[in-house]
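User: Some background: our group keeps a shared notebook of sequences we're curious about, and every so often someone picks one and asks for a predicted structure to add to the entry. Today it's my turn. The entry only has the sequence so far, pasted here. Could you supply the structure so I can complete it?
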Amino acid sequence: MPALTRGSDISLAISLQEKCDTLQDTLYQEPPNLPDLIVADLTQRNLDEILYTEISPTEVSEALFSTSSNTVPGPSQITYKMIKWAWPIAAEPITTLFQRCLSKGYHPIQ
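Assistant: Of course. Here's the predicted structure to add to the notebook entry:
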């Protein structure tokens, strides 16, 4: 891999460690400061919520693995590729998160 430019006033990244640090700093920047988050209570059912059949782990898996792994991460810096990588050991909490968001009608926009 050729040397990497790190900025106008910074020397080139030549060693493997310098290149790794440069790529990490460039691609995985600190998430921006977000305004106060709305904390959704996903444990209590509302009387006016729409009833539906809960989605299954298979449905979540099919939806997840049908997405592109080459998307840009949002403010959390979590990519679909990372979620797909974690799926074999985190299928249950990921499915639960989707089920509770759907049952509450909570659909994060960021």
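Suggested note for the entry: The longest helix spans residues 80-104. Residues 1-30 form one domain.
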